[in-house]
Amino acid sequence: MNHDVLLRSSGVVSGESDLWCTYAAVRTLSWLGRTGDLPSPETVAGFLASRRNTDGGFAWSAGMTSDAWATYYCTQALAELPADVRGTTGEASSAWVWSTLHADGGFAMTPGQTSDVWATYYAVRTLVEIYGERPPEALFDWLAALQAEDGGLAWSPAHAKNGTSDVRACYYAVTAWSTATGGRGPLPWNRERLTAWIRARQSTAGGFTFQAGDTTDCLWATFRATGALARLGERPRDPEGCVAWIRQRLHPDGSFTRWPGYPVPDVWAAFCAVGALRELGTDLDEVADGVVRTVLSFRTPQGGFTYRAPGFASDVLTTSAHLLAGRFTDAGARDALRWTESCVLPNESGVMYMPGRGSEVRCTLWALSAGAFRDDAPARAAVADWLTDAIQNPDGGFGYWEGRASDMVSTCAAAEVLRLTTGEPPAAALHGIAGYVASCETEPGRYANVPGGRSTLRATLQGLRALHRATDSADGARVADALARHRVRGGGFANEGNRVPDLLSTYEAVLTADVFGLPLDAGHLAAFLDSVRTADAGFAWTPLMATSGGPLADCLGRRLELRLSSARHALPPLALS
Amino acid sequence: MPTTDLTQIHDRVRTVLEKRFGDAARALAPDAELSAALPGFDSLAALEYVSAVESEFGIEVDFVADDVRYWFSTLDRTATYLRERIEDQAA
């Protein structure tokens, strides 16, 4: 059934370009020597450049804060484009990357966050390959501490102590080392044990999985495994079987699909298949034309790429937003929910932003809030197990996805997901959440997004809600204090200070007040909604913008309207940033 | 007393925009929509623009009551808004 649901894609299409898709498309074309096939590379460059922030870093989408992931993808993809369209990446970006260096020698996704191997990989590649700079010597000690007892590499030194090895962590760590040393420095790990662990992830069918115990081979794991082995000067246990398995993923339309049984050729499958075949030294000519033709069909009018043919490129956040705003007919809502529920990987039980991408905590919360798995107790239990058994970090918090360092948004989202999926989450998981929230407290009752960060309204409300959900230990008076500090006189709430209200902070303010049973000032909220309502019946993120902020903003605004109605509809427990 | 001369207010607002947007702001038509005419004029830039205008003219904008998305959408409208605010302060 999932096969047809995914193929037809009954979710909602945002129509926007996506950064990861755009990076994967450009890199794939580059590996095939075909960036010259891009009809208008200047529009791709324009899309990538639009992600640049004034601090010199790049963000996943315009208006968000810079992170190492987006900065690498943007700068690397720009570097692949013709020189006359790419512009200058500038010294400021290098300075921003250095600002993510953690005292332990690794790099963090954002300044001040805990280091992890995802961020370290992106930062090292950006520094060395884009800016020609050298990472610090302390990097190698940090990388060395990633080797777990089983010989594989983990997301962070703390994860290694818990023994969570993953093929992606192996690839990111080995590539960071290889990039920093040119592959000539001393290897910071036991080579034999590392090689053996990666090779053992290859199944008899020929493909690889991410972790011991995973049951379904996938192209992403196969690409990362072959890449890690190549940088170690090694090969898979069965290279011919691996090439054959990859070729079996070739769709009649000319490009690749991610795993056996998954029906849609997407940009990541093309990226992973071409990348893996390249690592294995296989001739790419035979597949090049089909892949190029397919990938180029994923371009959007915004200038970049999405993951499949744009008319079918639904995503979970947009679909959930439409569901939560009541914008479907009953039949349409059922189809959209079925599509949302199909956005789960074979080896990960959370919901993905886009099918084939990787489960994300916030997307899972939006999907569940929209009704996904409402009548499927085993699926809800699997989501809870995914959170507590697979992706909760050693510090007790949660990151955006597996292996990402913890942050308050994801930790609060995880606490809400646990409430929606299980009656009795494991006590250790709840205590872990409380411990992480405590580490983000800047002064009594005030919280930051990461330990050592600056307190904001949203982080404070998320921290107090997470504590309430996890241990029922939060104090409503703290919520009232935070709301009073950030209440904007004319209407709404501000994330910082009390002058510029925004939709997201106001939504979280009303949601948290309701959770703690605090009174709502309806006139104050109505005045704010009037200031962000747009001519096209949507909602802007702030009173400064004249146009709708898109489906997510429209959803939050609509839910606040429903909260103000005589029926006083409860707000879903959404978190976004 | 602060000037209420619209031309002078115009010039000062344009200088504010030039600091962030350079040549694009120098060539800006008085009635051009800032979000369309200035590359990168997104919600963050709009907030920075209002804050810089507040600082330049020593005023405090009410983000909810003042219809900021209208008054700060073009150079002309910003100047008109500022003249009224300056006159109100002088009254």
UniProtKB/TrEMBL annotation, chain A:
Keywords: Metal-binding, Prenyltransferase, Repeat, Transferase, Zinc. GO terms for molecular function: metal ion binding; protein prenyltransferase activity. InterPro entries: PGGT1B-like, Prenyltrans, Terpenoid_cyclase/PrenylTrfase. Gene3D superfamilies: 1.50.10.20. Residues 65-178, 190-307, 320-456, 461-539 form the Prenyltransferase alpha-alpha toroid domain. The keyword Aminoacyl-tRNA synthetase does not apply. It comes from the Bacteria. Pfam families: Prenyltrans. The keyword Cell division does not apply. Its cofactor is Zn(2+). CDD domains: ISOPREN_C2_like. Coiled coil: none annotated. SUPFAM superfamilies: Terpenoid cyclases/Protein prenyltransferases. Belongs to the protein prenyltransferase subunit beta family. This is Geranylgeranyl transferase type II subunit beta. It comes from Streptomyces galbus.
Automatic annotation (TrEMBL), chain B:
Residues 4-86 form the Carrier domain. It comes from the Bacteria. SUPFAM superfamilies: ACP-like. It holds the Pfam family PP-binding. InterPro entries: ACP-like_sf, PP-bd_ACP. Transmembrane segments: none annotated. This is Acyl carrier protein. It comes from Streptomyces galbus.
